[in-house]
TrEMBL record, chain A:
Main location: membrane
TM segment ranges: 26-48, 68-91, 103-126, 151-177, 189-216, 236-260, 272-293, 305-330, 342-364, 376-402, 414-439, 459-481, 550-567, 573-590
Pfam families: COX1 (PF00115)
Described function: Cytochrome c oxidase is the component of the respiratory chain that catalyzes the reduction of oxygen to water. Subunits 1-3 form the functional core of the enzyme complex. CO I is the catalytic subunit of the enzyme. Electrons originating in cytochrome c are transferred via the copper A center of subunit 2 and heme A of subunit 1 to the bimetallic center formed by heme A3 and copper B.
Listed pathway(s): Energy metabolism; oxidative phosphorylation
PANTHER family per the UniProt record, alphabetical: CYTOCHROME C OXIDASE SUBUNIT 1
Protein's UniProt keywords contain Endoplasmic reticulum: no
EC category name: translocase
InterPro entries, alphabetized: Cyt_c_oxase-like_su1_dom, Cyt_c_oxase-like_su1_sf, Cyt_C_Oxase_1, Cyt_c_Oxase_su1_BS, Cyt_c_oxidase_su1_bac
Reaction catalyzed: 4 Fe(II)-[cytochrome c] + O2 + 8 H(+)(in) = 4 Fe(III)-[cytochrome c] + 2 H2O + 4 H(+)(out)
Family of this protein: Belongs to the heme-copper respiratory oxidase family.
UniProtKB keywords: Cell membrane, Copper, Electron transport, Heme, Iron, Membrane, Metal-binding, Respiratory chain, Translocase, Transmembrane, Transmembrane helix, Transport
Native source organism of the sequence: Evansella alkalicola
Protein name, as recorded: Cytochrome c oxidase subunit 1
From TrEMBL, chain B:
Protein name: Cytochrome (Ubi)quinol oxidase subunit III
Species name: Evansella alkalicola
Membrane topology: Multi-pass membrane protein
All residue ranges annotated as the Heme-copper oxidase subunit III family profile domain in the record: 25-201
CDD domains, A to Z: Ubiquinol_oxidase_III
Keyword Membrane tagged: yes
Localization annotation: Cell membrane
PANTHER family in alphabetical order: CYTOCHROME C OXIDASE SUBUNIT 3, CYTOCHROME C OXIDASE SUBUNIT III
Chief location category: membrane
Keyword flag Cell membrane: yes
Superkingdom, taxonomy of origin: Bacteria
Transmembrane segments: 25-46, 66-85, 97-116, 136-160, 180-200
Family in the record: Belongs to the cytochrome c oxidase subunit 3 family.
Record PROSITE patterns: COX3
Length: 611, 203
C-alpha cells in the first residue's frame, strides 16, 4: 500500500493527488494564467465601455461587477497564484531541497485557492457578481449589495486559507530545509523575497480572515459591527481591510523584486551588487509595509496627526526601494549584458516601476491626497506598480525559468515582440490615466460626459489595453509554438544558482545527492573556483518520498459545498453547510488518524535517472 | 513493545525527525498568525464595546465569580498539559495520556460553563444582533470558545488513536503541538479575562 508509485496512476488521478511541489507549482501557474486571462478580458470589456463618452456597451451594474471582479481576480486569483507557482517550483530547487516542508499542506493550499476562485466566479451565474469594488467597503457591501458579496466573502475566505497555508509552508521550508552550507546570507534573492513575502502573508492574512468573517456574520447572521444604527462603525472594516491590504501589495511586489535580482545577475554575468543591502532592503520594506495601511484612508477623517505619521512612514519606504533600484543598476554596470526576453522584462521594469513609485510618493502626501483620492490618478499609480512591477516580473520569471519548469525554451523572437507590444500597450493605457485623474475623472464610473477634455485620453487608454491583450495572445501562441524546442541542457542560461545544477527535465526527487553550498551563487562559484559542478553533501542512497493524497481536494470541496449552505442560509439551505463541513472535518479527521510514512525510491532507479 | 520504543527514543522526540522539526516550527508560525487573528477581534471589540444601544452593557451582565472560576479551570488545564509533556520527556506514556485526558476534561468543563454563560446573557437580553457590543462580544469570546472546542476534539482524537501505540517519533510531535495550541488558547483567554471582563466591570 505504501508503495504507490506515480507510474501506476492515471494522469488525471496523478495530478489530483500529487504532493510534488513541481506539479503543484505548475497547477498554480495554469490556474493563475486562466484567471489572468479572465481578469484581462474583464478589463478590456470595461475599456470598451469607456472608449467613448456616454457609451451604452455595458449597463452600469455590469460595469460595477466587472470592476470588482477584475480587481479581485487579478490580485487574489492571478498575481498571487502565479507567484506561488514560481515559488513552489523554484524555491525548493534554489535551496537544494527535495520538496517543501509540508507536501500535503502544499496540495491543500492549492486546492483551497482553486475552489475559492471557482466559487467567487460562480457568482456571475447565480444572481450577479459582487459589485462593491475589490475593497468591498461597508455599508455599500453590507447593506446595499446582492448575493455577489456573499460569494466574494466566502470565496476569498477559502482561497485566503490556502494562501496562509502556503505562506507557512514556504517559511518552514526555507528555515529548516536548506542544503548544507547554505546559510541565510547565501540564499538567492528570490528565496529571500519569498521568505519575506511569506512572513507578510502570515501576519496580514488573518486580518482579512476576520474582516471577511465579520462581513459574513453581518450579512448572513444579522450582526451589527458595521451598521451605524445599531452602534456599529464602518471604519473598522477599512482598518481591517487595509491592515491586510497594504502588506498584500508587498506580498506581490517583493517576489517580483526577487525574480529581477536573479535575472539581472544572470544576464549581466555578475554577482548581484550589494547582496546584503538587497536582503536588508527587502526586510525593511516588509517591516514598513505593516506601518502604512492608513494611507489608504487619508480622506476618512483620521485627523492631521495620524495622516502625517502615515504619510512620513509611507515616504520612508522609498528609501529601501531606492537601494534596490540602484543595486540593480550597479549590477548591470560593467557587466556583459545579454538582452534576452527575460532580461528585457527586467530592464523595462526599472523605469516603469520607478514611475509608479514616484506617483506613490505623490499620493503619500496626505494634503495633496485629498485631490488625488478616488480619481484615475490612483488607478494609474497602482497599475504602474502592479503591472510595471509584478506582471513584468511574472513574465520575466516565466521566460527565465521556462526551460527549468517545462523542458523547453520560449521563442526569443516572439518573446521580444510580446515584450515590446506589452510594454508599449501598458504605458499607452495607463500613462494618460494620470492626467485623466488630475483633470478630475473619478475611478469606478461607468461613463463620462463628452466635451470635458476626457474623450481623447480615454480612447488612447483603450487602444493601449487592446495592445496588451494582443500581446498576451502572442505569449500564449509562443507557449505552443516553442514546444518543439526541446531543451536538453539543465543550465541553458549559464546560471548561478542551484536550480540550474540538475538535469532537464527535473527529476521527481530534484537532487540525486543533496548539494554542498560553498558561496552565494553556489553554481557560479563551482564553475569558476571549483571543478565546474556541485559537490555532494551525502552519498547516493534511497530517497524518501511522500505519498500522494486525494484528501486535499475533498477538504476543499467540502468548504466549497458548505459555502452554498451559508449563502442560501435564508432559503433553508443550512443543511448543505452542515454536509459540507462534515465532509471537510471528516477528511481532516481521516488525515489525522491515518499514518502515512511515504515510500522510497531505490538507489538503482536514481542512478538510471541521473544519466 | 511500547517500552522498547521509549527507551530508544532521543531526549526530545518531538523534534528528533525533520518532520517533527517542521511541524514544531510550522505550528509556532501558525500561532503567530492566530495572534493577529485574535488581535483583529480584540481591536473590533474595543472599538465597539461602548455601543450597547438599547441593550444591556458589560457591567450589567458580567458575573466576575463565574468568569474567575472559568479562568482558573482553563489555567489548570494548561498546567495539566505541562505535566503531560513532562511525562512524555520522562518516557512515561501512560502519564502522558492521563494528563492529556485531564486537560480535555477541564477544557470541556470550561466550555460547558461558557455555554451556560452565553445562555444567561441571552436571557438577560443580550442577543448576537442586539447591539454592536453584543455582536463583537459574542464574536470574540465565541471564536475563543470555538478554538477550545476544536482543541478538545483534536486532543481526544489523539488520545483514542494512540491509546495503545506507545510514544513514537510520529506521535510525539502531534502531542507536543496540540499542547502548544492549548497553551495559546489559554493565553488568549487571559487577555479576554482582562480586556473583556475586568475592563467591562471596572473601566
Amino acid at each position: 500500500m505504501s508503495n504507490t508509485n506515480a507510474q501506476t496512476k492515471s494522469v488525471v488521478w496523478d495530478w489530483l493527488t500529487t504532493v510534488d511541489h513541481k506539479k503543484i507549482g505548475i497547477m498554480y501557474l495554469v490556474a493563475g494564467a486562466f484567471f489572468f486571462a479572465l481578469g484581462g478580458f474583464e478589463a478590456i470589456l470595461m475599456r470598451i465601455q469607456l472608449m467613448f463618452p456616454e457609451a451604452t456597451f455595458l449597463p452600469a451594474q455590469t460595469f460595477n461587477e466587472l470592476l470588482t471582479m477584475h480587481g479581485t481576480t487579478m490580485i487574489f486569483l492571478a498575481a498571487m497564484p502565479i507567484l506561488f507557482g514560481l515559488m513552489n517550483y523554484i524555491v525548493p530547487l534554489q535551496i537544494g531541497a527535495r520538496d517543501v516542508a509540508f507536501p500535503f499542506l502544499n496540495s491543500l493550499g492549492f486546492w483551497l485557492f482553486l475552489f475559492g476562485g471557482i466559487l467567487l466566479n460562480l457568482s456571475w451565474f447565480f444572481g450577479g457578481a459582487p459589485d462593491a469594488g475589490w475593497t468591498a467597503y461597508v455599508p455599500l457591501s453590507s447593506e446595499y449589495s446582492g448575493t455577489g458579496i456573499d460569494y466574494y466573502v466566502l470565496g476569498l475566505q477559502i482561497s485566503g486559507a490556502g494562501t496562509l497555508i502556503g505562506g507557512i509552508n514556504f517559511l518552514v521550508t526555507i528555515i529548516n530545509m536548506r542544503a548544507p552550507g547554505m546559510s541565510m546570507m547565501r540564499m538567492p534573492l528570490f528565496t529571500w523575497s519569498t521568505f519575506v513575502a511569506s512572513t507578510l502573508i502570515l501576519f496580514a492574512f488573518p486580518a482579512l480572515t476576520i474582516g471577511l468573517l465579520l462581513l459574513m456574520l453581518e450579512r448572513i447572521f444579522g450582526a451589527t459591527y458595521f451598521a451605524v444604527a445599531s452602534g456599529g462603525n464602518v471604519v473598522i472594516w477599512q482598518h481591517l481591510f487595509w491592515i491586510f491590504g497594504h502588506p498584500e501589495v508587498y506580498i506581490l511586489i517583493l517576489p517580483a523584486f526577487g525574480i529581477f535580482s536573479e535575472i539581472i545577475a544572470t544576464f549581466s554575468k555578475k554577482r548581484l551588487f550589494g547582496y546584503s543591502a538587497m536582503v536588508f532592503a527587502t526586510l525593511l520594506i516588509g517591516f514598513l509595509g505593516f506601518m502604512v495601511w492608513a494611507h489608504h484612508m487619508f480622506t476618512v477623517g483620521m485627523g492631521p496627526i495620524a495622516n502625517s505619521i502615515f504619510a512620513v512612514a509611507t515616504m520612508a519606504i522609498a528609501v529601501p526601494t531606492g537601494i534596490k533600484i540602484f543595486n540593480w543598476l550597479f549590477t548591470m554596470w560593467g557587466g556583459r549584458i545579454q538582452f534576452t526576453t527575460a532580461n528585457l522584462f527586467a530592464l523595462g521594469f526599472i523605469p516603469s516601476f520607478v514611475m509608479g513609485g514616484v506617483t506613490g510618493i505623490m499620493l503619500a502626501t496626505s494634503a495633496a491626497n485629498y485631490q488625488f483620492h478616488d480619481t484615475y490618478f490612483v488607478v494609474a499609480h497602482f497599475h504602474y506598480v502592479i503591472i510595471g512591477g509584478v506582471v513584468l516580473g511574472i513574465f520575466g520569471g516565466a521566460f527565465y525559468w521556462w526551460p527549468r519548469m517545462f523542458g523547453y525554451r520560449l521563442n526569443e523572437t516572439l518573446g521580444k515582440i510580446f515584450f515590446w507590444m506589452f510594454l508599449f500597450g501598458f504605458h499607452l493605457t495607463f500613462f494618460v490615466q494620470h492626467f485623466l485623474g488630475l483633470m478630475g475623472m473619478p475611478r469606478r464610473v461607468a461613463s463620462y460626459l463628452p466635451g470635458q477634455g476626457l474623450d481623447e485620453m480615454n480612447l488612447i487608454s483603450t487602444i493601449g489595453a487592446f495592445l496588451m491583450g494582443v500581446a498576451f495572445i502572442i505569449f500564449v501562441v509562443n507557449i505552443f509554438v516553442s514546444m518543439k524546442n526541446k531543451e536538453t541542457s539543465g543550465d541553458p542560461w549559464d546560471g548561478r544558482t542551484l536550480e540550474w545544477t540538475i538535469p532537464s527535465p527535473t527529476p521527481e526527487y530534484n537532487f540525486a545527492q543533496t548539494p554542498l553550498v560553498r558561496d552565494v551563487d553556489a553554481l557560479w562559484y563551482e564553475k569558476y573556483e571549483g571543478e565546474g559542478s556541485m559537490k555532494a553533501a551525502e552519498p547516493l542512497g534511497d530517497i524518501h518520498m511522500p505519498n500522494g493524497s486525494i484528501l486535499p481536494v475533498i477538504i476543499s470541496l467540502g468548504l466549497f459545498i458548505a459555502s452554498f449552505g451559508f449563502i442560501y442560509h435564508d432559503d433553508g439551505w443550512t443543511w448543505v453547510a452542515i454536509v459540507g463541513l462534515v465532509i471537510t472535518f471528516g477528511s481532516m479527521f481521516v488525515r489525522s488518524i491515518k499514518e502515512d510514512h511515504g515510500y522510497h525510491i531505490p538507489v538503482d532507479e536514481i542512478k538510471k535517472g541521473g544519466k | 513493545m511500547a517500552d522498547q520504543h521509549v527507551q530508544t527514543l532521543p531526549p526530545s522526540p518531538e523534534k528528533a525527525t525533520l518532520e517533527g522539526k517542521n511541524k514544531y516550527l510550522g505550528f509556532w508560525l501558525f500561532l503567530g498568525g492566530e495572534t493577529v487573528l485574535f488581535a483583529s477581534l480584540f481591536g473590533t471589540y474595543l472599538g465597539l464595546r461602548g455601543s450597547t444601544v438599547d441593550g444591556p452593557g458589560p457591567s450589567e451582565l458580567f458575573h466576575l465569580p463565574l468568569v474567575f472560576i472559568m479562568t482558573m479551570i482553563l489555567l489548570t488545564s494548561s498546567l495539566t498539559s505541562v505535566f503531560a509533556i513532562i511525562s512524555m520527556k520522562k518516557g512515561n506514556y501512560k502519564g502522558l495520556l492521563a494528563w492529556m485526558t485531564a486537560t480535555v476534561l477541564l477544557g470541556a468543563t470550561f466550555l460547558g460553563l461558557e455555554i451556560y454563560e452565553f445562555v444567561e446573557y441571552v436571557e438577560h437580553g443580550l442577543g448576537f444582533t442586539t447591539s454592536a457590543f453584543g455582536s463583537s462580544f459574542y464574536t470574540l469570546v465565541g471564536t475563543h470558545g470555538a478554538h477550545v472546542a476544536f482543541g478538545i476534539a483534536w486532543i481526544t482524537t489523539l488520545i483514542i488513536r494512540y491509546r495503545k501505540s506507545g510514544l513514537t517519533l510520529t506521535n510525539a510531535p502531534k502531542f507536543y503541538v496540540a499542547v502548544l495550541y492549548w497553551h495559546f488558547i489559554d493565553v488568549v483567554w487571559v487577555f479576554i479575562f482582562s480586556v473583556v471582563y475586568l475592563m467591562g466591570i471596572g473601566g
